[in-house]
Amino acid sequence: MNRPEWLLDSGGDHERYWFRTPMGLEAEAAAEIGAVLPVERSVQTHRNVFVRLKAGADLDHRELVRKIRLVDDVYAFWGGCRGMDRSKDSVQSIIPFLEAVLDRNLAGDHSGGYIRPTVSFVGKRNFNRFYVEEIIGRQITRHSGLQVLNNENKDGKVDGELRLRCHIEDDTAFFGLGLWDTPLHRRPWRNIRYDGQLHTTVAAAMARALAPPPGSHILDPFCGSGTILIESALRHPECTHEGWDISEEALSIALKSSEQAGVNIELHSENSLRQLPEKTGYYLLSNPPWDEKHQISEGNIAGFVAGLEQWLRHSSVSVLLLPTELRELLEEKLERKSERIATTRIRGKLAEIIRFRY
Known about the structure:
Keywords: Cytoplasm, Methyltransferase, Transferase, tRNA processing. It is a single chain. This protein is α/β, with parallel strands linked by helices. The chain has two domains: 5-178, VC0802-like (2-Layer Sandwich); 200-357, Rossmann fold. It is built from ten helices and 15 strands. The protein has helices at residues 5-8, 26-36, 61-65, 95-105, 129-143, 200-210, 227-235, 248-261, 301-313, 324-334; strands spanning 16-20, 39-45, 48-53, 73-82, 114-121, 147-148, 162-169, 172-178, 217-220, 240-245, 266-269, 282-286, 315-322, 339-346, 349-357. Strands 2-3-1-4-8-7-5-6 form an eight-stranded mixed sheet. Helix 9 (301-313) packs across helix 10 (324-334). The radius of gyration is 23 Å and the shape is elongated.
């Protein structure tokens, strides 16, 4: 595959960033990145957006990067090198490039510090990630005083650790250093875990796709622990937010998380399929219970679709996360086609972010 030269060099006068995204959200993430940063060029690959900023932009880009919510993580991009194939021997091709970027970016005394190399790749290879991480770790030890944290040995997280990323795609290995010691998708407000919680980045993509006007009322009839409503409230603070769920535990977590995030959400412990909201013209944003934890059986799917249909018919715009088969049933029931925003993967299953307009 042809790569732009700026992706393959190890330096230059332009700031470069590498964003990791959930599968299928690359285009949506690139659009948000372009709206926040002064991007001169960008390239999208599988789960990656690489950007080069305009020269001479005098801004604090790291603080701007924190405003981007559709990415899982972000790295200062060091560049890439060719020479990879499926063989173990090809891994040796990264060493000259790696030595150069380590000398350029990790020069100086780092004694007492820690670094964690993490490798990912696309396609089948005759080696695993730990083999490449070991080779990278040996080079880091040679070129700096940093202590290498080993993923295969399950070394625990160290506060302030550096995070070096290598991603291998086709014949190219890309390298970058994490801007912070914690990935962006680990939101500071999500301190309580709950089975089935939606990935925060996917929730942020749904909130962006809703695009409500100021003053809108945004509802989630299946809000669970509140991830979608919180991401929406952070993106649309001028709107009001309201959610329903039958789980008291989930609602308790939603309340605590919303307080931690500094947003106000009205919550109801009710079965939303049995009670429609009093007003119409609202904006609906939801991940209905279709996954393994809340599997909809063949016996109750008709009732579920009928109940959800009523919520959609009373809305102005609805953005949902659904598997293809449920999306098709809804379209048939509504006699209306949805707009597909993106297709991503949720706990191993494909799901579509779709939008209905009324």
